[in-house]
Fold this protein.
Amino acid sequence: MRRIVPFLLLLPAFAFAEDRLPAALLGHPFPSTDAEAQSLEGVRGERPFLVVTFFSASCPCQRAHDPRLLALAEEFGDRVAFVAVDAEAHSTREIDRREKAARGYPFPILSDPEGRLADALGARFATHSAVLDAEGRVRYRGGIDDDRGRLRDDARLHLREALVALLGGGEPPEKETKVFGCFLRRK
Amino acid sequence: MRRFACSVLAIAAAVLPRLAEAQACCAGAAAGELGRLTLHEEALLGVDLRAVRTLGAFGDDASFRAARVEALQFEQSFVGTLRLGEAVQVGAVLPLVGSFARTPRESGFGGGLGDVRLSARCDFTFAGASRTVPGIALLGGVAAPSGRPVEATDHPLGVEATGMGRWRSWLGAAVEQSHGWAFAQIAGAVIHDAPRDVGDRRADARWGATGSVVLGASLPSEWTLAASALYEVEPRSPRRNVRFGLGVGHPLRDWRLQGGVFTDAPFGGLGRNQTVQAGFHFALMRIWT
């Protein structure tokens, strides 16, 4: 019932989002495609920022955005850590390993079927992305871009704009943007 | 009849998907329901063009008889839907109706404003958001008697009729679920037609019900497909009908193309006291996200 309440109350997507991810969640080990378990802190390592993108294996929108996510990881991967989080109720490491291989993700997919990270970051849709700094503060949250499905050449690349601004010492031009993706399938 | 069937098939063939490399997203419900906003859409405005041909009628004994009158109806509707908050959609349809009918002895054409429809939808939960809880929505609406009822027409074939001549309201619910590219919906509604005066006679209020099943798919080319079956029943008349439909939709940047074919099942026993129609429609809608 608790999971239905947000829909019943017609609350906006980010109503329950934390501005700072609790330390317990930052350091919590989640089953990972790249290791037995990894925490967000562990994935970030020494890099100043971590991009967390919520992942759905069955969402066509996620698949459509894969090229853009891969391009971002290629462009910023030496300065920014990337991680995908599968917060769907049926997520397993086996599914995520298969998907990672098929999509060619150079970053890990963490399995979070309880949706703790999604709840903390206010993520309800696939491709929802958040940029966390070293203290766990959410510096950007929203879509990878403003494309709904088919990628357009003139799309607004929100996540890229945020990373460029943050790496330049500034703030993202928009700290929250709309996410276009399928619902993350919860319990 | 053959010409009409060929036209329908030609249009269906033209709009069937040519698979491309891009992916569809979140639009499974759109193809089955004109004017419905899909996930992330905030508003739409559009025009729907519809052509319907009367094939015949079911009698009181539920047997089908082919039409002796060639009867065509064209409808151009202006459609608008607005999202209020996340869960509520309100919509309006303003139809302009034109009718043509021909018998061996005479023919006629007439038309005008049809019955304006206002509808609302409230999603308590959303399809695809939970593995165990499906999308549940409350549906309701009202049709105003803004069209001309058949008794107010002068033409012997009734071609100037554009409306029912009475208020209609409905209240129902839909249960739906989606997973990846697939979408399914079961919906039902209770319909109430208000009483009305026909000359010096009083036509009583009447109750009816509808039940429908929609199966949809988002194809890898961004096309969405929907197959539907709708059962309508009016127990006291008694009247019943079964309508099958096939719809397609395709997003074009800030627009959506939508079309479809539909037909009442012209098989004895499926309908009763009801005309049997078939037709197609095509809609172009501007979408705001």
Q: What stands out?
A: Residues 8-24 of chain B have pLDDT under 50 and may be disordered. Chain B touches chain A through 33 residues (CB under 8 Å). Residues 2-17+24-288 of chain B form a domain with the Lipocalin fold (CATH 2.40.128.130).
